[in-house]
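Final report, closing paragraph on structural work. Over the funding period we assembled a curated collection of sequence-structure pairs, and we close with a single example.
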Amino acid sequence: MSKGIKAPRRTTAACMIVLAALSSTLAHADQREDFLAGRTRECSRCDLAGMNFKRRDLSGADLTEANLRAANLHDARLVGARLAGADLTGANLNKANLSRAELAGAVLRDAMLYAAILDGAKLADADLTDALMGVARLTRADFTKATLRNVDLRKARLADAILTGADLSTAALDLAFLRGARFDGASLKEARLMGAEPVEASLMAALADPSQRVWAGTIDDTVSLISTSSRP
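Its predicted structure, as stored:
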């Protein structure tokens, strides 16, 4: 008798699990549709790969761990947006405003961020390998332990930016404004800094290329040193 009772209970429990999973999937699909239609700004873990959000206002949007590979976010407004863990590989973020955005652990490999605004953005542990960030504004941005290998940061403004422990190997920082930036423990192996302005920048223990020497402490007059040591 007890065996006959237990079997239906197991079946009922299994059905409830299936229904719950189905309900969650449908709800997520509805959330994605609502986000695309502009009815909500909540779309964490949504699949938005290749979608067009050009010039769209997504300020404060929750896109945590969303798939935004190859998405078009050109000139989009993402002030304070939550993009932690999001995949933005190959995304177009040229001229996008990402001020104070949360991008910790996000993947931005090969992303285009020309003239983008990331003032006060949080990018700790983010992967920006091969990203194009020329002329970008990165004042007080946090790149702690971020990967910025081979990144184009020419003429970028990194005033007071935090790059502690970041990997900037082979990065291009020509003519970049680095006043007050912190590079403590960062790797600058084979990085280019021709004409950069690292006034008051902290480069303690940074692993610079031997031809540029290893800087330590706070540098007040480094422009001439970099210009001279970077000559072929």
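The beta strands are 187-188, 201-202, 207-208, 218-219. The helical segments are 2-36, 223-229. We thank the funder for supporting this effort.
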